[in-house]
Structure formats: C-alpha cells, structure tokens
Design brief:
The protein is of the alpha+beta class and about 90 residues long. It contains four helices and two strands. Strands 1-2 form a two-stranded antiparallel sheet.
C-alpha cells in the first residue's frame, strides 16, 4: 500500500498509532522500515520503466484511434540520474 494513512485505516487504527509503535516497538520499527524500502524499490522500478521503456499512449485522428506510441519520460530519467550521481547531475 505504501501509504500510512490508508494502511492504518485498513487496519482499523489511526496514523498516530503507527508512529507510536515505530517509537516504542523495535521489531515493528524494523518491519516498517523494511516495508518502506520495498515500496521505494517498487516505485523506483516503475520510474525506471517509464523513463526507459515508456508508457503506451493512444493516438487519435479525427476521434478515431489510429495507433499507439510508447512515450518515455525525460523528467523521470533526469531524476533517476540525479539520484544515482548527484555530484554529476
């Protein structure tokens, strides 16, 4: 889920409880950090895919679908470069 508010609501607890558990329960804190790292890796993988492979976009002419194009994201590519080598980019 990668969203504390939504995950807490799904668990029937408040966001504050999550933060309290992080402060007071070492095992919970470790598991929370692991889950956060996994969520970040999923987001990075999706950003990499969109930057290098693109996303499929429909092309319409006169209201008629005539094809598709794989549109890459230069912005995501820039962010990925900056993250990997901030001194250079």
């Amino acid at each position: 889920m990668a969203n504390i508010t939504k995950a807490a609501a799904a668990a029937g607890i408040s966001r504050r409880v999550v933060y309290d558990w992080q402060e007071k329960d070492e095992e919970f804190s470790f598991s929370f950090n692991e889950a956060n790292a996994i969520a970040t890796e999923h987001l990075e993988a999706e950003a990499w895919k969109r930057a290098t492979e693109g996303t499929r976009k429909p092309i319409y002419q006169g209201g008629v679908l005539v094809g598709h194009v794989d549109e890459k994201s230069d912005t995501l590519l820039i962010f990925l470069l900056k993250a990997r080598n901030p001194a250079k980019y």
